[in-house]
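Look over both lines:
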Amino acid sequence: MQKNPPENSALINVCIIPPEQVGNQCVALAQLLKAGTMSALDGKTRFPHMTVCMVRVDKDSVASIIEAVDQALKSQKSFLCKHVGCYQSPGRYFEISYGKSPEFMVLHELLLETLKGYRLNPGNPYQESYFGPYDNEQQDNARETGYDLAHGRYRPHVTLLRWQEGQVPASPPELPKLDLSFQLSTICVYLADENGAVYEELARFSIS
């Protein structure tokens, strides 16, 4: 695995954006729990999104990637993103979890297939900071697709926050009883930082 990001590269995140009401509820939860965190949703610089796939590419290929995603989503239909609970994941993240439905996995695999031809250094990818604990299956996924949490390791979620080292609770915090399910309506292509957090919208697609 490469130890330094390739020059002239960009990390592309193709993600689902929840509707405003659900997004606002996610931000409120993150702000409620933000003590002891290094980052938390605030609705401004950090906002709710659900990564479908993420891959490091050459900056010069970004326009072609947007066109490829547009074509791939032409026949995409809306489906229910069902809230199923929360998860305290490796890497000190706390997430809102969504069901891994057949429709979700079809979308995930579609976008993996669309983007993997654009990834940099197939077979020897850069080990991204957001990978966290990095096991053999994740390494295999990264070599194949450019995304470590691909295929069976894919986990639909909205990250609320990331705790500082030494600040992770012994057990996940209790959350108010909320239904954060929503119907898929928006998919975006974003630039992401080294931790996988999105920061610049490149394209937005409506799904109906």
In short: The chain has one domain: 10-206. The helical segments are 20-32, 62-72, 102-115, 136-145. The chain is about 25% helix and 30% strand. The chain has a mean pLDDT of 91.
